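Recall from the previous lesson that a structure prediction takes nothing but the amino acid sequence as input. Here we apply that procedure to Speckle-type poz protein from Anaeramoeba ignava. The sequence below is the only information supplied.
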Amino acid sequence: MDNNNNNQIENQNQNQNENENEMKNLEKKVTKNLIKDYSNLLNGNLFKDFSIFVENKSNPFEIKVHKSILSSRSPFFNKFLRGQNDINKIF
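The prediction returns the following tokens.
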């Protein structure tokens, strides 16, 4: 009887370890996919809804960004953009 109990406990521990390993692998896969998706979002121009125009004497340029990301990463832009839904560029 003790041998059966030991085997059951050993099997339960093995199953738990297998489940934990599967969860870790799934978390790694999801994290990898999220990083890839956000990278594509940030590097692509699709859905960028705000432009910052930089005046440079020899080379003026435009930076296209996402309002939501800009405001979540910058307290200045968060305050600036809050309640200004109709603005889509600054100079």
